[in-house]
C-alpha cells in the first residue's frame, strides 16, 4: 500500500540556519522559505536525488510543532511521509486494522498542495506518519 518515502520532516527553531547548513555545508538543493499560515509552520524543502527533507519552523502562536520543540530544543525528526495512491482507501484500511488517524480523520491539503493525513505515533513505534496522495 505505501509507496515512496516522500519526505522526512525536521523541526527546527531557526529555519534560515538549517537552510544555510544544508545549502552551504551539505551542498544540497534548498528551496526558499515559505510561510504556511494554515499549517502554523514555515517550510523549506531540500530536494535530494531519492526523497526530500522538509524543515519546519513554528509560525504563529499556536504552531503544531511548538510543543515538539519545547521537548526537543535542538530540533529533531518530527515526522516521515509516505506516498499512497489513494488516501481514502489507505485510511480506511489502516483504521480497520486499528490505527488512529489524527484530527477529523478527513484528508487536508498539505504543504505540497496534495491531500494528507497523519497517523498516531503510538501506533507506529513512536513515529508520526504522514500519508500523502501521490
Ligand atoms: Co510533511
Oligomer: single chain
Low-confidence stretches: none
Q: Looking at this structure, what is the CATH superfamily?
A: 2,3-Dihydroxybiphenyl 1,2-Dioxygenase, domain 1
Q: What percent of residues adopt helix (DSSP H or I)? A: 10-25%
Q: For the report, how would you describe the main beta sheet?
A: 9 strands, mixed
For the residues shown, what is the average pLDDT?
96
Question: How far is the first residue's CA from the last residue's CA?
Answer: 12 Å
Task: Choose one word for the global shape.
Answer: globular
Helical stretch count?
A: 3
The CATH class name reads: Alpha Beta
Counted up, domains total 1
Which hetero compounds are present in the coordinates?
cobalt (II) ion
User: How much of the polypeptide forms β-strand, as a percent range?
Assistant: 35-45%
> Could you spell the SSE succession in H and E letters?
EHEEEEHEHEEE
Shape-level CATH architecture: Roll
Instruction: Give the radius of gyration.
Output: 15 Å
CATH topology: 2,3-Dihydroxybiphenyl 1,2-Dioxygenase, domain 1
Describe the fold and architecture.
The protein has helices at 15-25, 66-71, 87-96, and strands at residues 5-11, 29-30, 34-36, 41-47, 52-58, 76-84, 108-109, 115-119, 128-133. It has 134 residues and is α+β, with helices and mostly antiparallel strands. It has one domain (2-133): 2,3-Dihydroxybiphenyl 1,2-Dioxygenase, domain 1, CATH 3.10.180.10. Strands 1, 2, 3, 4, 5, 6, 7, 8 and 9 form a nine-stranded mixed sheet that branches. β7 and β8 (115-119) form a beta hairpin. The longest helix has 11 residues, at 15-25. The chain starts with a strand and ends with a strand. The structure holds cobalt (II) ion. The site of cobalt (II) ion has 7 residues, from β1 and β6.
Amino acid at each position: 500500500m505505501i509507496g515512496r518515502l516522500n519526505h522526512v520532516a525536521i523541526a527546527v527553531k531557526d529555519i534560515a540556519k538549517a537552510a544555510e547548513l544544508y545549502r552551504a555545508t551539505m551542498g544540497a538543493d534548498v528551496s526558499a522559505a515559505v510561510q504556511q499560515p494554515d499549517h502554523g509552520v514555515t517550510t523549506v524543502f531540500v530536494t535530494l536525488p531519492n526523497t526530500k527533507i522538509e524543515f519546519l519552523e513554528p509560525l504563529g502562536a499556536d504552531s503544531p510543532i511548538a510543543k515538539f520543540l519545547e521537548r526537543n530544543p535542538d530540533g529533531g525528526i518530527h515526522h516521515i511521509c509516505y506516498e499512497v495512491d489513494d488516501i481514502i482507501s489507505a485510511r480506511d484500511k489502516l483504521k480497520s486494522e486499528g490505527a488512529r488517524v489524527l484530527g477529523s480523520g478527513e484528508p487536508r491539503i498539505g504543504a505540497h498542495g496534495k491531500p494528507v493525513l497523519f497517523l498516531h505515533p503510538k501506533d507506529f513505534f513512536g513515529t508520526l506518519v504522514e500519508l500523502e496522495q501521490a
